[in-house]
């Protein structure tokens, strides 16, 4: 699969709204039979466009705590450790890292001081600075609208267009921008398999 057509995008939008939506309902919306929808979803999963189906839990219904945004500026050599500590915290729901390496986390912190929580969870010695903002409302709406999907060539990283190729290598479907990259990847894979 190289290009996603309008039907694929509509299927993705419907699944983003409700990942448990029956294929018969999706088929009615996109004018396909349920088996045809199933085939398209399978191809989207195999291509890596769909990585899995998940649930959207309203965590405010499950636990107490104060909703906050925590923005941290980690020391450059501590970015990975800070990111991992935030991701591992049960209080944190989402972690975002900017291109500059700053990290923003959303979570519901225990009612004690949020600043104390940051100091205990992350460690201020790992940070150049941080701030905590109280969140008044959260509206998390995952969407595929306005998104263009592009597969990357596993050999060189270029975008795979309709001129690209796909091949099953090592049991996985791989995508390539051109036949040359496909050949190079397969040769390298065979060498690694042989232990050269």
UniProtKB/TrEMBL annotation:
Gene3D superfamilies: Winged helix-like DNA-binding domain superfamily/Winged helix DNA-binding domain (1.10.10.10). SUPFAM superfamilies: Winged helix' DNA-binding domain. It comes from the Archaea. One of its GO terms (cellular component) is cytosol. Keywords: DNA-binding, Transcription, Transcription regulation. The keyword rRNA-binding does not apply. Coiled coil: none annotated. GO terms for molecular function: sequence-specific DNA binding. PROSITE patterns: HTH_ASNC_2 (PS50956). Residues 4-67 form the HTH asnC-type domain. It holds the Pfam family TRASH_HVO_1752_C. GO terms for biological process: response to amino acid. InterPro entries: ArsR-like_HTH, AsnC-type_HTH_dom, TRASH_dom, TRASH_HVO_1752, Tscrpt_reg_AsnC-like, WH-like_DNA-bd_sf, WH_DNA-bd_sf. This is Transcriptional regulator, AsnC family protein. It comes from Candidatus Halobonum tyrrellensis G22.
